[in-house]
Design a protein that fits this description.
Elements lengths: L4 E3 H8 L3 H12 L3 E3 L6 E4 L2 H10 L2 H17 L8 H10 L6 H17 L3 H15 L9 H20 L4 H12 L1 H4 L5 H13 L3 H17 L3 H17 L3 H30 L3 H15 L3 H14 L6 H17 L3 H18 L2 H16 L4 H17 L6 H14 L3 H18 L10 H10 L7
Helix pairs in contact: 4-5, 5-6, 6-7, 7-8, 8-9, 9-11, 11-12, 11-13, 12-13, 13-14, 13-15, 14-15, 15-16, 15-17, 16-17, 17-18, 17-19, 18-19, 19-20, 19-21, 20-21, 21-22, 21-23, 22-23
InterPro entries: TPR-like_helical_dom_sf
Protein name: Tetratricopeptide repeat protein
Organism: Streptomyces inhibens
Length: about 475
Amino acid sequence: MLGTDVDLQLLNEIAGEDRSTKASVESAVRAQLLRADARHPDRLHFTHALVQETLYEELAQDQRALLHAQVTRTLLDRSYVPEEDVEQVAHHAWEAGCELPAKEALPSLLRAAEQAEQRLAYEQAETWLRRAMCLLRELPANCRTTPELDQRLQIQLGQVLATIRGYGDAEAEVAFNRSRELNAVTGTPDRPSVLWALCAAHLVTGRYEESLAFSGRLREISKSDPDPVAVLGAAYGQGIVLHLRGQLPAALVELERGVSAADRFCSGQGSTLAKAFQHDPRVSCRTYDAFTHWLLGDRAAAMERREELLTLAGRDSRPSDRAFALYVDAVLAGLEGDIDRAERAGALGVDVAAEAGLRYWKAMLEICLGWASAHTGDSNAGIARIRAALAVLRTTRTLLRLPLHLGFLAQAQHQAGRLADAQVTLRSLVAEVEQRNEHVYLNPRLPAARLCAELLGPDARVR
């Protein structure tokens, strides 16, 4: 019940005056099923995990639940629950089932979710949040705190899912919309963090007019309340749409505004903003700023932003920030034909994203790595890698930067001598551009745009 490590103090608190429990422990020690821990005299260990598992399985389900509830209450009765025990308490609270009222169990699960998110263990955080939502449904119908708690859980789950799967994830968007619907019940105004999440969801899935409605709402809020997320979300959201539509000077105005605001706000509340914004906003705002400078022909400014990105997203930064910065590094390297740098940044980024369970960013970086592989002699493997990554991104509804990625695929196919395949890919690129008015991806500075003119003719260029 207590796991493979037995805390003797906890066992004594649970057993109380029950001599049979103490006798059973002494018998297990004599039989060498349990042994003392030389470094921690207040603990015993099962000699084999299988022994503990077998004994646990032999308990009836209702008996297990009762004991889990007893352990939970004993741990919570202590004056302080140390950080290392938070997940253990949540585990017992969940396994207690109906033996522990939801109102008693929920705080432990919420704390475990919060701790997991702080440790950047996003998949564990998702598990605890989903379990908390299950318990929420068991609260009494007249519980006045249920709507507020539901709203909080919807926001937290949406943020975690967006981090793991990308903002295009349908379930994340549903969670954010649900949290917003609850405003009518809780009496709370629109939260800038939720508006930004929905703005980003529409951006990533190619619904740019709807995205502009959310960034416009954020700008309205920022006029009366200089909330950092409202200020940053408005500048970044509107700057990206202007960038995509090829209105680069206007985009740069918004994006530079975002960079300045991010630097100002993050000097005092960086970690809080990173959670609300899903990234360190200094990283986010510099990404499209770097791309825009490069497309305007200001390579020096673009390279300066690139180096700032890599410095901000160093080894000690959040994995999502590091993956984002390495993606930008790899993309710029690819656009400049720097195969070695694209390969290094892509490979490192894939490792960072994979270790943190960031499926969205792993796929993004696989595209850059595939492009580099195709240019270093392994064309078939590189092309296959890009195609596989594009398939993953389709499952997340991601359309943002799709023409850019198709351009990398067409270049890889052209490099391999597969001209017919490259032409098919380039026609898809042009169709995507025309469907969503993403004119920036036919900018003549882009290698793929020049390849379009070469293989499809000059009429393929919308602008």
